[in-house]
Amino acid sequence: MSAAPKDSHDSGRGGGQVVGSEPSYAQSQLDKSTSPWYVPNIDRLLIPEVRQWRHDPESAARMWEEGGRLTNTQCITKARMKTWKDTGWDGKDIEFMDDGDMVLDFVVTRVR
Fold first, then answer.
1. Which range of residues forms the domain containing residue 80?
2. What pTM was computed for the model?
């Protein structure tokens, strides 16, 4: 799950996950892809003192676009929502999740 620092801001307002991910942007290589994932809709078992953002495919793409502007890089993001069954993960890995919870699976490829 992706969690932003306590004092950060949501994507779209500058900061948060974007600022926390700047080293990832800066160290990424042209024509290389990364495949992070976010659990976008957990409502329980959260750490209350840490802000956490839930992304959908569009907001994840905006976050990576914003990071590219901050680091003078550019990425193409392809994302989709997956059910737990789609992930193929072991049931023990997801036993804390509720029916209907999904994972945001995406691939980010740096192009500049």
1. 54-110
2. 0.56
